[in-house]
From TrEMBL:
GO BP annotations, alphabetical order: negative regulation of DNA-templated transcription
Family: Belongs to the BlaI transcriptional regulatory family.
Protein name (Swiss-Prot/TrEMBL): BlaI/MecI/CopY family transcriptional regulator
A GO MF term: DNA binding
Annotated stretches, region: Disordered: 114-146
Species of origin: Streptomyces asoensis
Length: 146
């Protein structure tokens, strides 16, 4: 998605309710000069792409997000990765750009996707807690070896 589409979607997510072109326009005009027809076209494009649904209200539409901002971010990352001629190198470069906090979030996400067999050893001692596995990925392996 382009910068303007992202700016429009940001408003739709922020308000978390069906919005009109006029509402989005007025908010965007606080930052930049933009025409009603431009915002209307962007929302129509987002509707065609499946990012927003719309319902007629009189002669206008109200638009609402179809999915979360997290799903949108995931789709953007997937699209960028799919365009690479060397996906492994792209991932290495991407991981290299991450902060320590982002790398911890990535480790947690991988554990969640891998399923309960990866998570159980770290939570067996204290229900509901993730233990120190987020800080020390080797701890789950050591617990499995006993």
């Amino acid at each position: 998605m382009g910068e303007l589409e992202d700016a429009v979607m940001t408003r739709v997510w922020k308000w978390n309710r069906p919005v009109t072109v006029r509402e989005v326009l007025e908010d965007l005009q606080q930052e930049r000069s933009i025409a009603y027809t431009t915002v209307m076209t962007v929302l129509d494009n987002l509707h065609q792409k499946g990012w927003v649904r719309r319902e007629a209200e009189g002669r206008a539409y109200r638009y609402e997000a179809v999915s979360t901002r997290a799903a949108y971010a995931a789709a953007l990352m997937n699209d960028a990765w799919a365009q690479s001629d060397n996906p492994a190198a792209a991932l290495v470069a991407f991981f290299g750009m991450m902060s320590e906090e982002q790398r911890h979030a990535l480790r947690d996400a991988v554990r969640m996707v891998q399923g309960p067999e990866t998570v159980e050893p770290t939570t067996a001692g204290s229900p509901g807690s993730t233990g120190s596995a987020g800080e020390n990925p080797g701890s789950a392996t050591e617990a499995d070896g006993r």
